[in-house]
Amino acid sequence: MMASNGIVQDDSKNTTHKFDPNFTQAVINATGPKASPRVRKITASLIQHLHDFARENEITVDEWMAGLELMNEAGRMSDNKRNEGQLVCDIFGLESLVDEITYKLASDAQDEPTATAILGPFWRKDAPKRNMGDTIVFNIESNDWTLMHGQVTDYKTGKPIEGAELDVWHTAPNGLYEQQDPDQPDMNLRGRFTTGKDGKYNFYCLRPTSYPIPYDGPAGKILRALDRHPMRPAHIHFIITAPGYKPIVTQIFDRRDKYIENDAVFAVKDSLIVDFKPYQGDPKADFELPYDFKLATYEDANKHSVAGTTEESATGLGAKI
Ligand SMILES: [Fe+2]
């Protein structure tokens, strides 16, 4: 319809068509015949949303350039120890949303497999393999030593899973991961543990500390512009893998943390909130943290997951992370 100001409007989308109405489709149509169906589909959708975003908000060249510079700065800051692009996605909730979409099976119900949570930007490949009962803490004085223990089981049968690997990492009491902190030994507060026949695990770690995500780059600029804080509730990260089972990337969160309901990257789920219990009888631990992980076989996982989630695609993901 023609509005009183002479601008043509499409009432079905309530979009103001003062811009070339054929432009977006022309860009989408430029995709060639050899593009895969998945690439064709998601790229067309991306172009449509990007163009609609620009039109609806009447983005100017200066604003677009400012956004572009944030992206470029994030790229320049990123290396094998820092992933600023991922951090920017995290503060917009995108990684948590994609995690939810990818791992639909995980829910907050008690009898479901362990819920997933975002990987975050601080995981490092090839953390040291350690023996059960070892510590992951080195060169740190603390009154928060914790004995974490539990079992990895098949969520459906309850049977222990032999050969499950727990890859664990968390921050030091100063709120820094080891790769952010030159005073910590390399690979401090990280380790990989493999279960035996009984599926059980135990190791010493620290009760973690809440910490700010790095805010000296684009993610920090965005947070300041949005009048938001950079804090994450205290948590421990895990990747649990086992032959034949769908890997789980997750985090567990300390219930008493003041940011538990206000995570800067929106990753907290109810079933992942835990209680550290004061512990007596072990001179090496101030707290005890029992926690069991429940995995789903690929067959069970695929019954509930979104289409396209297969062992191959998960393996590809595993290779990437
Ligand atoms: Fe973290």
From TrEMBL:
<keyword id="KW-0223">Dioxygenase</keyword>
<dbReference type="InterPro" id="IPR015889">
    <property type="entry name" value="Intradiol_dOase_core"/>
</dbReference>
<dbReference type="Pfam" id="PF00775">
    <property type="entry name" value="Dioxygenase_C"/>
</dbReference>
<feature type="domain" description="Intradiol ring-cleavage dioxygenases">
    <location>
        <begin position="121"/>
        <end position="296"/>
    </location>
</feature>
<comment type="similarity">
    <text>Belongs to the intradiol ring-cleavage dioxygenase family.</text>
</comment>
<keyword id="KW-0408">Iron</keyword>
<keyword id="KW-0479">Metal-binding</keyword>
<dbReference type="InterPro" id="IPR039390">
    <property type="entry name" value="1_2-HQD/HQD"/>
</dbReference>
<dbReference type="InterPro" id="IPR050770">
    <property type="entry name" value="Intradiol_RC_Dioxygenase"/>
</dbReference>
<dbReference type="InterPro" id="IPR000627">
    <property type="entry name" value="Intradiol_dOase_C"/>
</dbReference>
<dbReference type="GO" id="GO:0009712">
    <property type="term" value="P:catechol-containing compound metabolic process"/>
</dbReference>
<protein>
    <submittedName>
        <fullName>Aromatic compound dioxygenase</fullName>
    </submittedName>
</protein>
<dbReference type="Pfam" id="PF04444">
    <property type="entry name" value="Dioxygenase_N"/>
</dbReference>
<dbReference type="InterPro" id="IPR007535">
    <property type="entry name" value="Catechol_dOase_N"/>
</dbReference>
<dbReference type="GO" id="GO:0018576">
    <property type="term" value="F:catechol 1,2-dioxygenase activity"/>
</dbReference>
<keyword id="KW-0560">Oxidoreductase</keyword>
<feature type="domain" description="Catechol dioxygenase N-terminal">
    <location>
        <begin position="37"/>
        <end position="106"/>
    </location>
</feature>
<dbReference type="GO" id="GO:0008199">
    <property type="term" value="F:ferric iron binding"/>
</dbReference>
